[in-house]
Amino acid sequence: MVAGFSLQALLLVLAIYQSFIKILYHTNYLKFITKINYLVFNCTKFESENGNTFMANYFVVGASSGIGKAVAMQLAAEGHQVWATYNKHPIHSDHPLIQYYSLDVLDDPIALDFLPETIDAVVYCPGSISLRPFERIAASDFLKDYQLQVLGAINVLQQVLPRLKRSNNASVILFSTVAVQNGLPFHSQVAASKGAVEGLCKALAAEYAPKIRVNCIAPSLTDTPLAASLLNSDTKREANALRHPLKRIGKADDMAHMVAFLVSEKASWITGQVIHIDGGMSSLKV
Which terminus of the chain has fewer CB atoms gathered within 10 Å of its CB, N or C? Predict the structure, then answer.
C-alpha cells in the first residue's frame, strides 16, 4: 500500500499514464516524454499487499527479434521498465516501457551509459544457429560463436555488475540449447559455445550467491527468425515438431514466460540452474 492510495487506485493511475504516453510517443516530444516516463516509473516503485515489488529495471540484450523481443514485451506487459538493445537492425518500440539502444557486445569497452543506476536483471539473448558436419567447420567459426555467446555475455555482465549489486533482487539469465545435454549431430559448433555458457552460469551463480542469482534456459528448436531455415516448409515444421514428446515447435513466448518467472521474486530460491524448455526432448523418450 502506498500512502493515500490503494493498490487498485495506483494501478489505474499508471494505466492512464501509459495510455497518455502511447498517444504522444511518436510526436516531436519523444525525448522529453521518454525522460518523464523513466522518472515516473522509477519514482513509483511500491509493494503490493503480498510484498511483491513492481516496476523493476530490466536489461535485455539482443531484443530486436525472436526470444529477446518476446522477453522485452513480456516484462513490459507486466509493468516493468525495459532497456533493450539491437545490433545491426534498428528497432523502435511502441511500448512506453521499452527503450531500444544500439549495442555491439564485442566492443571494447562497451558503452552502457544509457542504463539507470540500478538494474534488477540482465537477460542475454544473442545467439546463432549453424548446423554443419564437424569436418566442414573452420576453427574460426567456432571462435566467432564463442565470442558472441560467451565473451559477449562476459563483456556485458562485467560492465553491468555494479548496477546489479544495487538491486535487492538481482538476477542474470543466459541461454543455452538442448543440444548441450542431448548430443545432436551437426550441432558441434553451437553446442561448444553453449556448453561454455552453462559452465559460466554455474560458476557465476556460485561466486555471486546470495546477492545475484544466475540461471540458464536451454530451449529446443524455437520458431524465431534465427531458426527460419529449419522451419521454412510444412514438411520441415512437421518433422521437427514430431521429434518432441509434446509434438510441437517451441514458441518465443514459452521462453519469455520462463524468463519473467526467473527474474521475479517468485524465483528467489532458484540459482545455478540450467532449465530445459524443450517440449520434453531432453528427458523423455516417447
Answer: C
Q: Please give the model's pTM, rounded to 2 decimal places.
A: 0.81
Tens digits of residue pLDDT in 48-86: 333 444 589 999 999 999 999 999 999 999 999 999 999
Q: Angle, to 10 degrees, between the axis of helix 152-164 and the axis of helix 188-208?
A: 20
Q: Output Rg (C-alpha) for the chain, integer angstroms.
A: 20
**Nine cell digits for residue 66:** 525472436
pLDDT tens, residue by residue, 244-283: 999 999 999 999 999 999 999 999 999 999 999 999 999 9
**Contact at 8 Å (CB) between 157 and 204?**
yes
Distance CA 239, CA 235 (A): 6
| 66-77 burial: b if 16+ Cβ within 10 Å, else e | bbbbbbbbbbbe
